[in-house]
Amino acid sequence: MINVPTSLAMHPVFDLLAWGAGAAGGLVVYRWRMRAGAERLVRSAEAGYFTALVVGAVGGGWLAGSLNTLRGPAPALSHSIAGVLAGAILAVEIYKAVRGIRGSTGGAFVTSLTAGIVIGRWGCLFSGLGDRTYGVPTSLPWGVDLGDGVSRHPVQIYESLAMAVFLVAYLSGLARRAPWAMHRGFYVMVAWYGAQRFAWEFLKPYPKLIGPLNLFHLICAGMVVYGVVWFVRDRRREADPQGRALSVPGPDHQPV
After folding, report:
1. Class of residue 2 by CB neighbours under 10 A (exposed 0-12, middle 13-18, buried 19+)
2. 3-state class of 19 per DSSP?
3. By CB neighbour count within 10 A (0-12 exposed, 13-18 middle, 19+ buried), where does 135 fall?
4. Rounded to 5 degrees, what angle do the CA atoms 186, 222, 131 make?
5. Core vs surface per residue 171-180: b (16+ CB within 10 A) or e
6. What is the distance between the alpha carbons of residues 47 and 43, in angstroms, rounded to a whole number?
7. pLDDT of residue 108
């Protein structure tokens, strides 16, 4: 068992590191490979796009986190990165449908989001039991003691490493200009995040919702379905010569 020094004060420290790394990584990748996609997003999306993004992310994060912790033994409000991602996706896709915007618009955020999760999850680990993201007890040699003398699965590290693997694969894809990374990286990231998070949820003591599944199992399953379905849709759209360009809403709100 590995003893981990913990303090709730570590969470904001790692949050700042995650935001900084995400912003820096996003800027580097933007200059390296994603400039065209980011500029296309800016041209096609109006202020409403970013309003939907922020409202969906904040609302989804607090709603999902609180719905989970309010059902626990010590009810309290909280937030969740899974809820942030799911809420942002839902709000933006509704906005895009109303405005007639087609194609992926999330590519510019892939590096920032992934790097933020990779670093931010270590903040959850070092925040200890108070963060409420700890794992269930385990007898494995890499179990961590977060201050209560119980050896637990370091689920925060599992998630960080899983997303680090995706980040390496994504950057490798960008280096080769692979179509999946250049045009549909966001969908792949969402599906990967949902799949790996779904697995780790079995190692958390969250209240069950349906059988052995908790709330985040259902949210993550939805993200996997979204990523796969939208990936296939976008690849088919790209194969159609008439659908390759990202649609931009005109004055009459119809695609042009």
Report:
1. exposed
2. helix
3. buried
4. 85
5. bebbeeeeee
6. 11
7. 86
Residue whose structure tokens are 């959850």: 124
Q: Of the candidates 85, 83, 59, which has an alpha carbon nearest to the alpha carbon of residue 215?
A: 83
Span 211-237, pLDDT tens digits: 999 999 999 999 999 999 999 998 888
Q: How many CB atoms lie within 10 A of CB 116?
A: 24
CB 78 within 8 A of CB 69: yes
User: Residue 32 corresponds to which tokens in the numbers above?
Assistant: 């390296």
**Phi, psi (5° rounding) for residue 129?**
-65, -30
Per-residue pLDDT tens digits for 122-142: 999 999 998 889 999 999 999
Determine the Cα–Cα distance for residues 229 and 231; give it in Å rounded to an integer: 5
Q: 217 with 203: CB under 8 angstroms?
A: no
Coil/strand/helix, residue 51: helix
Are 193 and 85 in contact, with CB atoms under 8 Å apart? yes
Residues 203, 136 contacting (CB under 8 angstroms) = yes
